[in-house]
Amino acid sequence: MGEALGRRSLEAAPESRLFAPLSRALLAEGDRRLLWLPVAFGAGIGLYFWLKFEPPLWPGLILAAVAIAAFAALPGQAIAREAALALALFAAGFALMRFVASETAAPSLHRRQGPVVLSGLLTDIARKGKGWRIVLAPDPSPAFAKGEEPSRIRLYIPARGKRLEPGERVRVKAMLFPVPGPALPGGYDFERAAYFARIGAVGFSYGTAHRIAGAAASPPRLFLRRLRNRLTRRIHRVLPGAAGGVASALITGERGAIPLDVVKAFRDSGLSHLLSIAGLHLGLVGAFVFFVLRAFLALIPAIALRYPIKKIAAGAALLVLFGYLLISGARVPTERAFIMDGVVFGAILLDRLRISMRICALAAFLVLALSPQSLVGVSFEMSFGAVVALIAVYETYGARLTSLWRGEKLSRRLFSYGLGVVVTTLLATAGTEPFAAYDFHRLILYSPLGNILAVPLSALWTLPWGLVSSLLMPFGLEAWGLIPMGWGIDATIRIAEFASALPGDVWPLPRLPLWGLLLIVFGGLWLALWRERWRLWGSPAIAVGVLSMFLTSPPDIVMADGGRFLAARAGAGFYFVDAGRGEKFERSYLTEATGSALKAWPKGKKGRLDCSGSLCSYRAHGKRVAIVLGKEALPLPCARFAAVVARVPAGFRCRKRIPVIDRIDNGRQGSVALWLGGRGIAIESANGMRGSRPWVPEPLPKAAGARPQASGRN
């Protein structure tokens, strides 16, 4: 009846007569229209990050107020009111993100500093390779220039000396560096992530950090971090090596102790999701607690006949999941899974159980409201991408899919379970692959095979034993659960190594531009959130977004880190690289982003590159670029080249005639990439693409005789 009244009021509304086809289509969707409200909220947050300047707060507040007034002034006009509400949430998301960014602002280091002696509060510590990665809130120090006193510093320290705990005061001698920017224009922006974590400098220590006298801080967050560290140590005492690293990742969320080769095997087999505490883990833990406790209470007639044991079990599952959330660090996938599972168990308590896209929309809205900057994080994107794809398909075709794998024979059930894992893996891959292509530039071909082998093992053996070990920890009996858990982890590692070693497993993908990713996301949401036939209109948007990858090409020349990293494309498949040992991140990111191998910088002529002493000549597509390795090559005959890339200050000689990028420009603009083509030379810089934002460092004072070089392909 309510829907009929809404239909009549909508048909009588003025906007229905003007936009009758659109109104009828929207009306047919019913309450599915409300699923777009979190999308509008996220779009407002996304607009803040898309801008190349720091906007004021007032436009968002005024637009939100106007939209709310329009909502109140349009009684009886359903679609217009919902559009006004969506606009209000869009403006609210923009204003919230602007407010959070201004509240997060903290000083950051602009120059290399050190070695310096620092003291301060240890706020976090985690295993990283053979050492520890700590976060230090430093005391005021004369070592920092005014306006450059970082609020937090992230340091790598060796695993020597006494074990430290969050909340203790320490002293350390360290070498400090500014937070590094993107290794390639448009690449992963660690400066932005560090800005919202209030980290203003990074570095390494000379020797270990030493505990000093002073009262230890004990706010709840530091208490939880200390507890997490102690639980992690207890896990490693029982399970050393890779198994202990994976076990701690599954129980406490600490992944730093997993060997790099094991991380790579999980990543290349499509099993990385098993290392991140998300829907699978919380769902299994919640279901285990719910069904086991309910079955136990049902065995006690005095309780089963007098009390609602189903609701008691649901409440206990909620408490266990909340504790799991806190212990594991409350990362975005865990928050999303907790909210969705919490809604399910809450619905049991209220006798209104219904799993639908509404739960996912509510979870997305709450995560963004609590942490709006998570929108541009890969954890949020891939977590919700997978869940939206799964719910959308199972909402529409769930009954048909379930009927396919029903049966009484054990063999049919096992086959059906395997088929279900494959279908689920393919759906999750479809939901996450656009973000994987944008961030990691790769496709994992044998991901379904790895998942069909590893997911049942994790679900039926590894994770249940992990829960058992956690419940036994208060009694000092965690080994009883960790040892069998380790057997499952060892088997999972072998599965990951097997799948990742298959020939042709990892396919490098071309660069997916941002506008292509946005088209895919919009088209995917159009397909997933609507129910009527017009949802198929999302398919062309997805297709165009996917095809946008083939409009891009790897850069021909890259310079980063103030000229210390230099790469020239030698042809299809590899780059020549000239860089020091400190540029490991730039090397790995270039390989990952382009799918290319790296070779040492040649001497003499080799392919496109011809090096003679300090001057190299790079030829491609009829263009010739001078690559200057040392000041001995200056001055240059400008007429012989179409552009100049110099690891040393290049002066003014050629700048008025051709593009010139030198070490000073590289320091101001961040990493720079050049594309040589028939129409000329296109140039992109990291800072040019990002614009003037709080996390983008301001240029250092200009050196005499230097001019900034504008980015030409932004």
Summarize the structure.
By secondary structure, this protein is α+β, with helices and mostly antiparallel strands.
CA-atom Rg in angstroms: 28 Å
**Helix share, percent:** 40-55%
N-to-C span? 54 Å
Widest beta sheet: strand line-up: 12-11-10-9-19-20
Number of domains: 5
Q: Proportion of β residues?
A: 15-25%
Instruction: Outline the biggest β-sheet.
Output: 6 strands, mixed
Which runs of at least 5 residues are low in confidence (pLDDT < 50)?
A: 1-6, 8-16, 701-714
Number of strand elements: 20
Q: Counting H and I runs of at least 4 residues, what is the number of helices?
A: 24
* pLDDT averaged over residues: 84
Structural class: alpha+beta
Overall body shape: globular
